[in-house]
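BACKBONE GEOMETRY TOKENS
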Amino acid sequence: MASHLAKARKPNIPLFLNVGKSKITSLEDAHFDYAKTVELCGPYVDGFVINVSSPNTPNLRELQKDDDWLG
């Protein structure tokens, strides 16, 4: 994704990227997926939407209960 964003012309409107964990990543390691995506794509977008509710990713909604999101 980052390589595609780097090659693309930046639009004249804000660009937000919806970020979710991979289906093969455990819930315990999900934060690594989110952090790596933000690190790689951050220079090319205006902001991120952190997705913790995709019905297509098993158990992803469990992350909604995690107090670690609060800092």
